[in-house]
Write a structure and sequence with these properties.
5-stranded mixed beta sheet; D-Maltodextrin-Binding Protein, domain 2; single chain; 22 strands; alpha/beta
Length: 494
């Protein structure tokens, strides 16, 4: 074991098969009892047959058996979920990027609940076995897609290049508490092992994991419960996202909050559990029938008004003679560019997009997107795109009102633009609601120009520029960390 070798401790690795490994015909929520991935290992510890047990921390119950304790945890491998999809079952225009009606393999109640909430059109099918076994079942055509912990695939260093791999943002699809972290367990009275573990443990990660597992402890659950919790450093402490349900077939609740430690996380989560959803929501955007946000409002009885407050006007343009890349900053830029110029871009021209929603729109027109800037921090996206672009030229299809945030980070000689649309205010009186969601600065200005007011309602902004526009009207808002409907619904529900 590398960690022990690094601190000069010799060791022997013993592989122990658990109940969870042996039972392959049942999903996790159907296996009776607790600790079905850990009990046999813990029994070896209690019987002095081994000195240290190494667990995937997410598999552990919230309390160790009497006589044992978790003395430390590892660094965190990638906490996200990984979707592996057969290439013939890919549809990049849809959420999670597998085709309609796909058969998706997972035995995790938490994964089932979240997949079902995002894509109710698909069929969920239990899958068991170790990671290579599950991937083989996918390759054999038993499934269109399977979902795995990316940490497990990374640690095994598996070649999955024949499959289409989607890393699902951990803020969108919430992982199990402590996913990607190893737990080091030993006997409580073994001071020598405690000392050894302390030398290789990650203290900062232990604090973060304690916060996530404080949420799990509220449900008295292990890995078979439909509960996800993910924490990461943020201003004021740690940003904590939680999803939970009684059963995977139920509509999962999503909430988020900031907490300094596990006790504050517990208190804030309890308060949110007892808090009612808003009765009405306005969003300054048209939502499709497949929209996650619209579906959640329908399922929970929240009245939703979705209405854009700007009108898009097409403008004629001429393409420059040559460019190496095209960067789209919004869904409107994609629609208007291809509406007027249904060009067949040569294979030498790469496509780039700001955000997943823009990328999904672009997927209707092109087969491959080389760069997708994620998150709401436009400065960070600009920096990442600059590194991706190098010294190549790039075309920006933009509106007349474009802020040109990405362009400003590049050498002017690289930048070409076509103004393909403009936006004008669509002045409408909006019926008062409990929560307002604004999707752009121009929608904010149109809202107030029409004489609307916020009152004491909750306000949510997609991104810093929209948040800044609200500030001009003395409106404080919650800002979405990612421009995704799951994030918006989380903020609404919180």
């Amino acid at each position: 074991m590398g960690e022990l070798d690094a601190i000069g401790v010799s060791s022997e690795l013993i592989i122990i098969t658990t109940k969870g490994d042996k039972i392959q015909n049942l999903s996790f929520d159907k296996i009776e009892g607790k600790g079905f991935f850990t009990k046999e290992i813990e029994d070896h510890l209690l019987d002095d047959k081994i000195d240290i047990a190494i667990h995937s921390h997410k598999d552990l119950e919230t309390e160790s058996p009497p006589g044992l304790s978790i003395s430390g945890v590892s660094y965190r491998e990638d906490p996200a979920e990984l979707l592996l999809i057969r290439k013939e079952s890919v549809d990049r225009t849809l959420d999670l990027e597998f085709k309609k009606g796909a058969v998706v393999g997972t035995s995790s109640a938490r994964r089932k609940a979240q997949i079902n909430s995002l894509r109710p059109d698909i069929t969920l099918k239990d899958i068991r076995g170790n990671v290579p076994t599950r991937i083989k079942k996918l390759r054999d055509g038993q499934f269109d897609a399977i979902m795995l912990a990316k940490a497990g695939v990374n640690r095994l260093n598996l070649d999955v290049s024949d499959l289409y791999a989607v890393r699902v943002d951990e803020r969108k699809f919430i992982p199990a508490p402590a996913q990607g972290v190893l737990a080091y367990q030993c006997r409580e009275d073994d001071s020598e092992m405690h000392s050894i573990i302390t030398q290789m443990a990650d203290e900062g990660m232990a604090h973060l994991v304690k916060i996530e597992r404080a949420i799990l402890n509220k449900f008295g659950g292990g890995c078979h419960k439909p509960i996800g919790a993910y924490a990461h450093p943020a201003e004021g402490g740690y940003k904590v996202r939680v999803t939970y349900a009684q059963d995977w077939e139920d509509t999962p609740r999503r909430v988020s909050f900031v907490a300094k430690d596990s006790e504050e996380a517990r208190i804030k989560f309890e308060a949110l559990q007892n808090k009612s959803l808003p009765t009405s929501v306005f969003i300054s955007r048209d939502l499709s029938d497949e929209s996650f946000l619209k579906r959640q409002c329908q399922l929970t009885g929240v009245r939703l008004e979705d209405q854009p407050l700007i009108k898009v006007k097409s403008l004629e343009f001429e393409l420059p003679e040559s460019f190496d890349c095209v960067f789209f900053s919004s869904r409107n830029s994609v629609r208007e560019f291809f509406r007027q110029s249904p060009i067949s871009v040569s294979s030498g021209v790469t496509m780039a997009a700001f955000g997943e929603s823009t990328a999904k729109e672009l997927s209707h027109f092109v087969n491959e997107i080389a760069f997708i800037g994620s998150g709401s921090d436009s400065a960070l996206v600009a920096q990442n795109f600059k590194e991706f672009l190098g010294n190549r030229s790039v075309l920006f299809p933009i509106s007349e009102q474009s802020l040109r945030t990405i362009q400003s980070s590049l050498d002017l000689a690289q930048v070409k633009e076509v103004i393909c649309y403009s936006t004008t205010a669509e002045l409408s009186k909006i019926e008062p609601v409990d929560c307002y969601v604004f999707t752009s600065p121009s929608n904010v200005e149109s809202f107030f120009t029409a004489g609307n007011s916020i009152g004491k309602s909750k306000v949510i902004a997609i991104g810093p520029s929209t948040e800044k526009a609200l500030k001009k009207h003395n409106i404080d808002s919650l800002s979405a960390d990612i421009p995704d409907e799951t994030e918006l619904w989380t903020l609404i529900a919180s």
